[in-house]
Each structure stands twice: as C-alpha cells, then as structure tokens.
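RECORD TYPE: inverse folding
INPUT: structure tokens
STRUCTURE:
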C-alpha cells in the first residue's frame, strides 16, 4: 500500500470500551450538510483520510470530520464560520493546557465544563455552537491572563 495514502478503516477499534464496526465508504450521515441541507456521505480523501462530504459535491463543499478507525462522525456538522470558531476555541484551550503544566487534559475539560455549566461528556468543541465557542474562549482567556 502506498505510504501517502491513508489506510481504510479497520474492522474493529482495538482497546475501546465498545467495539464498533467500521462504516463502509458511501454511508450516509443522519445529519444534513450544514451548507446546503443535502445528505452527507462518508468518503475517503487521499490527503486527509475518512470524512463526510456533501452528496452535491462539487456544487457544494460542505464537509464534516470522521473518526479514522470507524468512520463515525466527530461531533455535530456545522457551517464553515462555526468550524472556524471551534478551531479558535480549541487553540485557546491548547494555550490553557500549555500554561498549566501540571493540569491533565481530562482535568482541563472538566474545569471548562464546570465553568460553562455543562456536563463533562458534553464538553467537546465539535459539539459547540458559535455562542458556546465564544463563551469558552472568553473564560479561557480570562483564566490564562490571571496567571
């Protein structure tokens, strides 16, 4: 197999609590394309591996991330501007982690969940909308600036 091409998903995820079968290429996501409302379909990119792309591609460039081992969607599909907010929020979170050398990632997510008044299992940037991203960024910046 060519080293530059990503491997197709494995049949099972090793070491996970629940073993999930890999989804076949072409599987449709239950959620719609955030850009046009059409179906999202599991595809394989030569550069990025598994992802969900709009059924209307190339007329619509809506995409969504997929776990590379199973093809399961990562979070909730969002429009481009929300994806950019999510990336900014995650970058702020990474700054928080690097500023608190003794804080584990799990602890940092629990701290943020507490500040956002949400359950820790819901504290994942791929689940956040624009307002939640803005709030997370503000909370993290305040914490980092007080050091």
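DESIGNED SEQUENCE:
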């Amino acid at each position: 197999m060519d080293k530059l091409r990503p491997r197709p998903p494995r049949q099972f995820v090793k070491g996970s609590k629940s073993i999930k079968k890999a989804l076949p290429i072409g599987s449709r996501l239950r959620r719609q394309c955030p850009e046009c409302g059409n179906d999202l379909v599991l595809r394989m990119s030569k550069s990025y591996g598994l992802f969900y792309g709009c059924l209307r591609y190339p007329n619509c460039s809506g995409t969504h991330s997929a776990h590379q081992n199973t093809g399961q969607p990562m979070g909730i599909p969002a429009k481009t501007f929300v994806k950019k907010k999510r990336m900014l929020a995650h970058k702020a979170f990474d700054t928080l982690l690097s500023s608190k050398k003794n804080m584990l990632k799990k602890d940092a997510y629990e701290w943020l969940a507490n500040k956002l008044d949400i359950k820790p299992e819901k504290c994942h940037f791929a689940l956040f909308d624009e307002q939640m991203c803005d709030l997370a960024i503000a909370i993290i910046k305040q914490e980092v600036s007080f050091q």
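NOTES: The beta strands are 28-32, 39-45, 49-54, 63-65.
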